[in-house]
Amino acid sequence: MSLSERDQKHNWHPYTQHKTAQAHIAITKGQGALLWDEEGKEYIDAIASWWVNPFGHSNPIIADAIYKQLTTLEHVLFGGFTHEPAVLLSEKLTAILPENQQKLFYSDNGSTAVEIAIKVAMQFFYNNGIKKTKIIAFENAFHGDTFGAMAASGISFFVEAFKDSMIEVVRIPVPTAGNEKQSIETLENLVATKEYAAFIFEPLVQGAAGMVMYEASELDKLISICKKHQVFTIADEVMTGFGKTGRNFASNYLQESPDMMCLSKALTGGAIPMAITSFTQEIFDGFYDEDVNKALFHGHTFTANPTGCAAALASLKLLETDEMQHNIARINKSHLSFINRVESHPKVVTTRVLGVIFALEIKTESAASYYGSLRNKLYNFFIENGIILRPVGNIIYILPPYVITDAQLQKVYDAVENALEIV
Fold it and tell me: Which residues are modified to N6-(pyridoxal phosphate)lysine (predicted)?
């Protein structure tokens, strides 16, 4: 019996309707931008395995850092204790985050990083005797699958079954071209009510919505409005963080710094689940009190896991190398060149690029559903051709590991062009 067949007996996969889904491909090895299945077929991982793996699979530098940490201290509880990897990581990370980010809270994935930010925003005002229990978010946002993160998300079929059991979130339009004025006016009307604790957003790029992009100058205006009305701003950098947009963080494009930032995915180079929520000193001080009940009562068993911290430190070191910065610029240049090659195709509506993120919208006669027939046809076509891409409806996006070669990238582009001929 194959590994793929054995998998079906017990494993429940994410975002999967198992009655209609095909058997899952069993991957046995990864190296750089490549993966191999149990039959030896090679795939180019053109989405860095859900955006977590910028430095390639089986990266020896990260693997070595993990091994050394495992032979020294694999884990210790972070309640009442600390350790050098966590201290070093806090020092290294705050040095490259916007300068107002001074305190870090560790957790284990992007959803929990967001969950913590939302809880902190609401409890800050509660600690100060102020009732602010609502959150503002963008339309079609995605922030995760735990309850607070899910409430902040705006892709309806992800949350439909739970919509009567969540905190209240009100949405504003994304300030894409033509929507800027409506976005600003809607936000101004909401914050004037003084009922909102925070505004959460994916800075510059909405990933799960199909790599929807908007200008930093427009986000600056929204953040400025929130600051004037004592509404905290939360930058969900789970996808955009660590070089994806061409800078360390999408927030580096802003003039206004967010009050909180959520980090995960590429934080450890895809090696170990880990997340961080960062805060201003002002927010931390809102919990700093003689009254124990004003503390943040939130924790995870593996908070600040030393092995995860070691992986993150190695990942940050790799990100800062001239080689990786050159790779990010190289991929961006290649994406822009591909736009010139494909944007005039009659099946292409729009193309867009930011950093290593490329997106292309396919012309359709009617709206394409998120996991509909077009998406499935495209996904299967790419898999057959040894390319891992996960289209979102009629949006094809590429977000590769920084170590992808030019030849591998060209193969991905060729597959995208060929896919346009089958739709």
Answer: 265
CA-angle at 336, arms to 331 and 339, nearest 5°: 125
| Residue 229 counted as an annotated binding residue | no
Task: Give residue-wise pLDDT tens across range 239-278.
Answer: 999 999 999 999 999 999 999 999 999 999 999 999 999 9
110 labelled as ligand-binding? yes
* pLDDT surpassing 90 at residue 164: no
Separation between Cα atoms, residue 240 and residue 230, nearest integer Å: 26
Q: Judge if pTM exceeds 0.85.
A: yes
111 is in an annotated binding site: yes
Cβ atoms of 237 and 101 within 8 Å: the answer is no
Q: Quick one: tokens of 54?
A: 């910028």
Q: Sketch out the chain's domains with CATH numbers.
A: 3-58+322-419 (3.90.1150.10), 63-319 (3.40.640.10)
Does 386 show up as a binding residue in the annotation?
A: no
Distances 224 to 178, 218, 221, 233 between C-alpha atoms, Å? 20, 10, 5, 9
Calculate ∠ Cα 259-85-71, nearest 5°: 150
Give the model's pLDDT for residue 393: 93
| Cα gap 374→366, rounded to integer Å | 11
Contact 44, 388 (CB under 8 A): yes
Question: What integer is the mean pLDDT of 398-412?
Answer: 98
Average pLDDT of span 141-162 = 89
One-letter amino acid of 261: M
Q: Is the pLDDT of residue 369 over 80?
A: no
Neighbours of 370 (CB within 10 A): 17
300 is known to lie in a ligand binding site: yes
326 is in an annotated binding site: no
DSSP 255-273: SSPPSEEEE-GGGGTTSS-
Q: What pLDDT shows up at residue 102?
A: 98
Per the annotation, does 265 bind a ligand? yes
Closest among 56, 2, 45, 51 to 207, alpha carbons compared: 51
Instruction: Report pLDDT for 304.
Output: 98
